[in-house]
Amino acid sequence: MYMMEQTSEGVVMKLKVKPGSRRFRLEPAPNGEIVLEVKSPPEKGKANAEVLKRLKAILGHDAEIMQGHRSRNKVVLIRGAEIRDIKDKL
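^ that's the sequence the OP posted. Answer follows.
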């Protein structure tokens, strides 16, 4: 089960980001977090930009980092989304 919450603005979800990975990968972790491996390095917001770009491409909605701009653990808002749609696409 993913760590997600429905809000009036969309879906809030917790991510664990692994920047500087060899390839892009998205997978659930046993604790319910979603692990997102991105190629971009964790410098000057490059990894954050890739996270937002990839989430939009996969989920079809704009995303915004709410917490964790400088951390691997992030809380992201998927604007206008619903949990059932997100789960179907993951």
